[in-house]
Amino acid sequence: MVHIFSPSTGRLPRKRIGTAASVLTLAAVLALSGCASVPPPDGAMSQAQAQLQAARDAGAADYAPVDLGFAQDKFQQAQAAMAARKYDLAADLAEEASADAMLARTKARLGAARAEIQSKLEENNRVRTQNEEAKAEAQQHAAQQQAALATQQAAQQAGGGAPAPAGSAALPAQEPLPDLPAPSSSTLNAPLPQQDQGQPGQGFQNVPEPSQQPNGGQP
């Protein structure tokens, strides 16, 4: 049995070459049209910029500098992608920048709240210390007054005198009584009034002198 092989020419038909070129051209056109159909992510870029500003206003530069730096870097990359018309990449970077900015703002608020609480605690401790010092000073002053009073009382007792009452110092000194005039001699030599003999029992009676008794008689 004899097989007869036809010689290969090694070239593609012109019809197939034209078809392949048409397919490649169509693919390129579709790719270009697909890229042109993606709109610029203006909304995502605006939101990322607003979140960055809110984070700065919340104090993220002081309380969350690392997260704020990440957000700023992502936003700058998104701007570069927008300039290169890589809108898909720009949209993704803008969303990441917004997320990092929101995280930075949250950490900043938390840090500010902690700082305020710490400040209030320190103020309360300062006021408490002042009150304790004032109380201790008042107690010391009272103890000094008591000690001085005890020393004064001990000195008065050692001197032999009873401690003066609290209100004695406030009493005014009494003036001496005036001298009364002496009675005259005529008043002293005046006879005493005689009592009526007919009315015994009234007042005192004069006792007769011994010269008036009868001689030789016994009473």
Automatic annotation (TrEMBL):
Residues 121-138 have a biased composition (Basic and acidic residues). Keywords: Signal. It comes from the Bacteria. Residues 1-36 form the signal peptide. Residues 208-219 have a biased composition (Polar residues). Residues 139-174, 191-205 have a biased composition (Low complexity). It holds the Pfam family DUF4398. Residues 121-219 are annotated as: Disordered. Residues 44-118 form the DUF4398 domain. The keyword Oxidoreductase does not apply. This is Uncharacterized protein DUF4398. It comes from Fulvimonas soli.
